[in-house]
Amino acid sequence: MSEMEVEEYRQRREITVEGRDVPKPVKSFADVGFPDYVLQEVSKAGFVEPTAIQAQGWPMALKGRDLIGIAETGSGKTLAYLLPAIVHVNAQPILAPGDGPIVLVLAPTRELAVQIQQEAAKFGASSRIKNTCIYGGVPKGPQVRDLQKGVEIVIATPGRLIDMLDSHHTNLRRVTYLVLDEADRMLDMGFEPQIRKIVSQIRPDRQTLYWSATWPKEVEQLARQFLYNPYKVIIGSADLKANHAIRQHVDIVSESQKYNKLVKLLEDIMDGSRILIFMDTKKGCDQITRQLRMDGWPALSIHGDKSQAERDWVLSEFKAGKSPIMTATDVAAR
């Protein structure tokens, strides 16, 4: 692409870039320069063209430089850092016994970590890259066994990873590719001390990719301390918080009218779609779910008082469409 074409492309896809020697975006997967084993997985997944964050983020990440990516949820950012991570792993010496991971991805919640792992497993399959997911609320045994066998990619929530490091079940000496996903969310949840402790154990010449949906001061300050001479790519506005493609409709009704309004909405939109109903309280979740089920609606609830096994089961029923209505507190926000 010529400079004029690059400018037009970035403008059309709402891409803003900062940094020295910023590489041009790519229009197709073939233009990226990914090895065949990555392109095969992309082709298998049926993708037609890169999303905006992938089109600009891949050339940046493949340069080996630090990267700040600001993009809304649902923008394709997971693959924007995972595919370069797979290329990075395959360029490193193989793991020796006792080695920790080469790639570390930190995520704020167990739910997001599991989603990332599913993508890592799918796209790393052809090059036999091993991964594991480290999070709390479940027995440590299987996670410890994975770490002891040796895995190239670890996806983790900060608290459980520190537990594993303190127990000497793994180490971060081999980490040369670090990803902080949803950094703003991690700071909101109070994980800054844990993040600092983890990053302090990683070699300073690592490549760091720092992802956020918003760009408040505290997120920017942390980035300045962790990243060196980074590229920065913003998709849309740095103030965004949610996907602009989502249509929002607000109805203000009295407490006594809420349930009848909900049922009317369900009757209007229940066409095979999955419906997520957020509630303020766990008690409210259970009450509404009971009422819906009594009225014949296929509803389940998910919240922090449920065991990890129950939450996994509810999510799988919801995803499969067996129970297409789910009531939730913010435990399911991701």
UniProtKB/TrEMBL annotation:
| Record has Transferase as a keyword | no
Please give the superkingdom of this protein's source: Eukaryota
InterPro entries named among the record's database cross-references = DEAD/DEAH_box_helicase_dom (IPR011545), Helicase_ATP-bd (IPR014001), Helicase_C-like (IPR001650), P-loop_NTPase (IPR027417), RNA-helicase_DEAD-box_CS (IPR000629), RNA_helicase_DEAD_Q_motif (IPR014014)
GO MF term set = ATP binding; hydrolase activity; RNA binding; RNA helicase activity
Q: Where is the Helicase ATP-binding domain?
A: 58-233
Q: What UniProt keywords are attached to this protein's entry? A: ATP-binding, Helicase, Hydrolase, Nucleotide-binding, RNA-binding
Q: Start and end of every Helicase C-terminal domain?
A: 261-334
Q: Which Pfam families match?
A: DEAD, Helicase_C
Instruction: Look up keyword RNA-binding and say if it applies.
Output: yes
Spell out where the chain crosses the membrane: none
Q: According to the UniProt entry, what is the EC number of this protein?
A: 3.6.4.13
What family does the database annotate?
Answer: Belongs to the DEAD box helicase family.
Q: What is the official name of this protein in its record?
A: RNA helicase
Species per Swiss-Prot/TrEMBL record: Gossypium raimondii (Peruvian cotton)
Lineage of the species this protein comes from? Eukaryota, Viridiplantae, Streptophyta, Embryophyta, Tracheophyta
